User: Which sequence fits this backbone?
């Protein structure tokens, strides 16, 4: 049993993986939280008396969360987290970036997860703080991708740069009769329209492309896109699982921790 973690630009997603599959843990916004208290509640309680053999992490937030997360894992779980990274190639998937190490590891994990679950050419859309699009040919060649602001990022940007506007939540409708609803609809359809266009461009490059959407805003894309899409909310964590299978560090011993650990 192990814990899979996806540290995004604003939120932390995780799941317990055991012989029954993936069991999602509650997602949380990691900024301005006392991490140890949050993890005690959201991770320790679901674990019960079990201890994971490893904790595997995809991290795009730099050093803003990972050091504290690592310290908590060492103290409470007796393991040093394994941090996955983007590489030039993995199991036939060829990174299309000129400098593969600069390719976002969450995007790399999402593509690996997609390749593990689906066949043929793939268009992988991960929509959160930013929305990323990546195209993979059937032979595993990554043909490149794009990055656009996420829906709520667009809304916050309007509130920041236009004094008469504000970041608005609400139903996404193409035509609205209030400013708040207009912002919600405009930003929602801007993102949806862009994604449909990317899928159209993908279909010009490859045959019979399967489009998978994931991330915090994927449900909006799934409900409004004209293109056929598959919603896979655990896609990044599935890729983290595959990557982590080849990157396992030994657990910290009870003697090193100075405590007696329960048996899994």
Assistant:
């Amino acid at each position: 049993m192990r814990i899979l973690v996806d540290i995004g630009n604003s939120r932390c997603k995780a799941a317990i993986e055991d012989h029954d599959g993936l069991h999602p843990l509650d997602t949380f916004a990691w900024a301005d939280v006392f991490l140890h208290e949050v993890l005690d509640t959201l991770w320790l309680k679901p674990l019960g008396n079990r201890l994971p053999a490893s904790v595997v992490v995809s991290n795009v937030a730099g050093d803003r969360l990972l050091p504290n997360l690592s310290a908590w894992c060492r103290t409470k779980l007796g393991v040093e987290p394994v941090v996955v990274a983007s590489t030039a190639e993995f199991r036939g998937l060829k990174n299309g970036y000129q400098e593969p190490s600069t390719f976002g590891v969450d995007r790399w994990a999402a593509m690996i997860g997609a390749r593990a679950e689906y066949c043929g050419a793939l268009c992988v859309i991960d929509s959160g703080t930013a929305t990323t699009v990546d195209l993979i040919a059937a032979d595993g060649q990554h043909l490149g991708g794009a990055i656009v602001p996420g829906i709520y990022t667009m809304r916050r940007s309007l509130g920041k740069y236009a004094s008469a506007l504000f970041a608005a939540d609400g139903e996404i409708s193409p035509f609205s009769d209030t400013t708040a609803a207009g912002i919600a609809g405009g930003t929602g359809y801007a993102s949806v329209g862009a994604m449909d266009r990317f899928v159209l461009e993908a279909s010009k490059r490859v045959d019979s492309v399967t489009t998978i959407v994931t991330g915090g805003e994927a449900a909006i894309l799934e409900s409004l896109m004209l293109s056929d899409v598959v919603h896979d909310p655990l896609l990044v964590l599935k890729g983290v699982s595959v990557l982590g299978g080849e990157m396992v560090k030994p657990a910290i011993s009870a003697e090193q921790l100075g405590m007696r650990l329960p048996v899994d």
Notes: Helices lie at 35-47, 66-77, 105-117, 151-161, 179-205, 218-224, 235-244, 254-257.
